[in-house]
Amino acid sequence: MSWYVHERTALADALREAGPTAPTLCAGWEARHVAAHVLLRERSPRVGVGLAIPALTPQSDRLTAELADTARDAAGFAALVDQVARPASRWAPVAWAGDAANLVEFYVHTEDVRRGAGPVPPRNLDPELTRALWDRLVRMARLSYHRSPAGVVLVVPDGPRKAVHRTRGEHGTVVVRGEIGELTLHALGRGAAATVELVGAPEDVAALQAVLPGG
């Protein structure tokens, strides 16, 4: 099963519950901007390229803002979310990649919307979904933490652990402990909204937090 399909539905549900102008964990974005971003990422080659090439990011941002502006009212937002809820064309490049390109994207943006207005309890995730998230997390975590001078070990209580980044210089290692969904949020810069515990020397924890936005 492709778990990103499940998370697409969860995102659409979260968007509908939140409404167009609800705050999110994405700085400067309301729920309508998240919806616009997700839709354009799948269906606009120009936005897809802009996400991959920094020089083209302003173009991507402009197109996202323009689409979000069409969804300020309830009717426009409902139409936009209905498009988000529908699967992308099977010819879309991101559709070919399945969970590899889409699972973390949909999971994290669902939580961006759910947690934007303040703390909420974590969702009760299917064990198979968490295993799929862990598989993606350990692959992307090396990039997520690569700027940290402190080493990083991800630990799931009563579950797996993985060293994802080595120490540099005189620094030690920080253990980031939490459930898999929460660790995923931390690695993607949403640590301030994630239920995780950072264990390590204070200077090492500070060094990690200094280079990971929201960590």
From TrEMBL:
<dbReference type="InterPro" id="IPR017517">
    <property type="entry name" value="Maleyloyr_isom"/>
</dbReference>
<dbReference type="InterPro" id="IPR034660">
    <property type="entry name" value="DinB/YfiT-like"/>
</dbReference>
<protein>
    <recommendedName>
        <fullName>Mycothiol-dependent maleylpyruvate isomerase metal-binding domain-containing protein</fullName>
    </recommendedName>
</protein>
<dbReference type="InterPro" id="IPR017519">
    <property type="entry name" value="CHP03085"/>
</dbReference>
